[in-house]
Amino acid sequence: MTAIKDAADAFLAHKRIAVTGVSRTPGSHGSNVVYQRLRERGYEAFAINPNAESVEGGPAYPSLAAVPGGVEAVIIGTRPDRALDTVKEAESLGIKDVWMHRGPGQGSVDDAAAAWGREHGMAVIDGGCPCMFGPTADGGHKFMCSFMKLTGNVPRQV
Q1: Cα 12 to chain centroid, rounded
Q2: CA angle 140, 146, 149 (to 5 degrees)
Q3: Which end of the chain is more exposed for a tag (fewer CB within 10 A), N or C?
Q4: Where is the CoA-binding domain (predicted)?
């Protein structure tokens, strides 16, 4: 097991990160916040939305495989029942780092998808938000992180 801070640091060391579930409606979804934050902090962030050609002022791609040049990591921000397909696609493309976004509530975490990824040699963060850690963090997200570690929505180890 790896401490969440160390896992988050390793994940955020990547510079080409895909974010699934970015909505066509700005501000309507947590994935949009993560996508924008990554872009603001100098990451090459790629929005994955099979129902849009552009979101938040940038291009959207229908799948991980459609991103030109590929990505190093993926943040899953869709419904949990879509997580396993995303993890399997990531593994087929050689992507070894996956983060299943979770704020209050279920978020995008799917236990079966996390287990499948780990069984296939992937590093899977199953909870929390990248905006809670490292160079993407802000005060509000750091506060939420402390609280959500108590509720289990941010794992202490992955």
Answers
A1: 10
A2: 130
A3: N
A4: 11-102
